[in-house]
Amino acid sequence: MPRVLMGLKKILADKQTWVGLGLIFGLSLVGGLVSHPGLVRRFLAGEFRQAFILKEDFPQVVFISLPEAEAAWSERQAVFIDSRSLEAYHRGHIPGAISVPLEDVKSGREDLLAVIPEAVEIIIYCEGGDCQASLNLARWLESRGFKNLRVFSGGWAEWTQAGLPVEANAAK
Amino acid sequence: MLQNRKLLIIFRLIVGGVFIWAGISKIADPLSFAQNVRNYQLVGPALSFLTAIFLPWVELIAGVWLILGIYPKSSALLISCLLLFFIVLVLITMARGLDVDCGCFGTFSRRADWRLIAEDSLWLALSLALLFSPANDFSLFRKKLSKT
Q: Which of these CATH numbers, 3.20.190.10, 3.40.250.10, 3.40.109.10, 3.30.70.100, describes A61-161?
């Protein structure tokens, strides 16, 4: 172990090590900027702050806010999909929501998609905050031909914080 | 310390090859990789995007340089640090109960789990052997220079 530490000390003390690292980082920066100038431009223009999808690739996926989700729910205009785990769904969910856990779908349970009615607005949510399951499920659904997909990114957290109705332990 | 030069060259081909493949597969689809980074829920969207633009090139260049022997200590050090970071990242992710794709090889990625940690640990062991072995001195670059 002391020999390894001595060796590491020697490597770190060598100026060439740092020159090499600097060159790798510098070239990587150039490589990244040159290989995807279009994406970098769109990023600088404010895109990719909500999701890393090209709008033209996923035209059916639209992000909605809490008031829009609430309006659609109270007017019964949409089907709500809970993309969290089944346990989380049983603990509590938006009333009327159908449980389609992303993880189960990814593990091959595509039969779960059969319960989603087509040709209506589909609002998908997950935990809220940083959760990505709703968006990932929306991408999955779009690739399977589903339309009118809405991602309610505020999710369960925003819904409950707003004091909106919830339902628990109900079967889907 | 390993003294067998042929074995060290094989190590370089393996570790360098893994990093070249990892880099290229992500460069091909940066937005998917950005989503993978975001799925770990450690950094925000902007940093996820910048990581997805920058990191694959670091992996690619470090992998190529490790094989060719261009600044071999720098590339071995960088690759070792990256692997150590990936192992810690997967451990943290598992401890947080997140079930995510590792994002390691673009569309060929799989779950961030114990198998992945074992795999990364193997690459790390090879990479450390390369970093600390004085016999790891083969360099296409230097040979060319000495011939001229």
A: 3.40.250.10
